[in-house]
């Protein structure tokens, strides 16, 4: 062959990311904009933009800390439908542990009809609802596509003390309460 072969120049990677609940999660909503703005670059001390052009969720895994001996610990994820309407219900996956020996644990992938399992465009759609006690660990596996050209979404939460060019990870629920803080990542 006397010419270079065609190739895909799109930068794409799959990543397991970990978050910890700083308070009890009660129907804590995660939106498509939250997923698309996980990786941010600061444009000033108080503003940032997302580095992600598109994303797709593969799975969520949650562990709730063991409860007291006479109590229970429940974690759950609810996948919202992709299109609201007849024959397209949400799907809830949950687990409850009893006592102080084991944690509650769920691992779930989005159903075929869930928006969370499709490539996300960032239109403010609810993807999932999470429940769990304080200290719940949430792992989410996501395939990301790097934005081609200028950074995408403006940050949807207040940052402080950033330097232009700083790269950081936002909370998983950054358009709402910011209870799901990243573990082992720089954040603002």
The structure class reads mainly beta
Write down the overall geometry: globular
Number of helices: 1
Which architecture of the domain at 18-35 and 59-146 and 172-182 does the CATH hierarchy give at level 2?
Sandwich
Q: At the third CATH level, what is the topology name of the domain at 18-35 and 59-146 and 172-182?
A: Jelly Rolls
Content of β-strand: 35-45%
List segments where confidence is low: pLDDT < 50 over at least 5 consecutive residues. Answer: none
Description:
The protein has 188 residues and is mainly beta. The protein has a domain at 18-35 and 59-146 and 172-182: Jelly Rolls. It has one helix and twelve strands, in the order ββαββββββββββ. A five-stranded antiparallel β-sheet has the order 8-5-10-1-12, with no helix packed on it. The chain has a four-stranded antiparallel β-sheet with strand order 2-9-6-7. Strands 4-3-11 form a three-stranded antiparallel β-sheet, with no helix packed on it. The protein is globular. The model has no long low-confidence stretch (mean pLDDT 88).
Provide the fold topology.
Elements lengths: L11 E10 L3 E7 H5 L2 E4 L5 E3 L1 E13 L7 E8 L11 E8 L5 E5 L17 E7 L4 E10 L20 E3 L10 E3 L6
Antiparallel strand pairs: 1-10, 1-12, 2-9, 3-4, 3-11, 5-8, 5-10, 6-7, 6-9
Main attributes of the structure:
1 helix, mainly beta, 3% helix, four-stranded antiparallel β-sheet, five-stranded antiparallel β-sheet, Jelly Rolls, 188 residues
């Amino acid at each position: 062959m006397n010419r270079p072969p065609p190739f895909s120049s799109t930068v794409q990677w799959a990543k397991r990311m970990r978050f910890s609940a700083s308070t009890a999660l009660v129907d804590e909503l995660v939106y498509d904009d939250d997923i698309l703005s996980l990786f941010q670059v600061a444009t000033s001390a108080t503003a940032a933009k997302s580095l992600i052009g598109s994303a797709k969720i593969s799975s969520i895994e949650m562990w709730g800390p063991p409860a007291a001996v006479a109590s229970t610990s429940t974690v759950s994820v609810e996948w919202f439908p992709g299109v609201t309407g007849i024959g397209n219900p949400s799907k809830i996956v949950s687990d409850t542990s009893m006592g102080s020996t084991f944690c509650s644990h769920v691992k779930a992938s989005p159903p075929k009809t869930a928006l969370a399992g499709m490539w996300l465009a960032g239109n403010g759609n609810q993807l999932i609802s999470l429940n769990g006690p304080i200290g719940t660990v949430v792992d989410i596996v996501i395939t990301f596509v790097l934005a081609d050209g200028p950074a995408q979404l403006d940050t949807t939460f207040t940052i402080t003390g950033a330097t232009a060019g700083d790269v950081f990870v936002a909370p998983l629920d950054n358009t709402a309460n910011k209870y799901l803080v990243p573990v082992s990542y720089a954040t603002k």
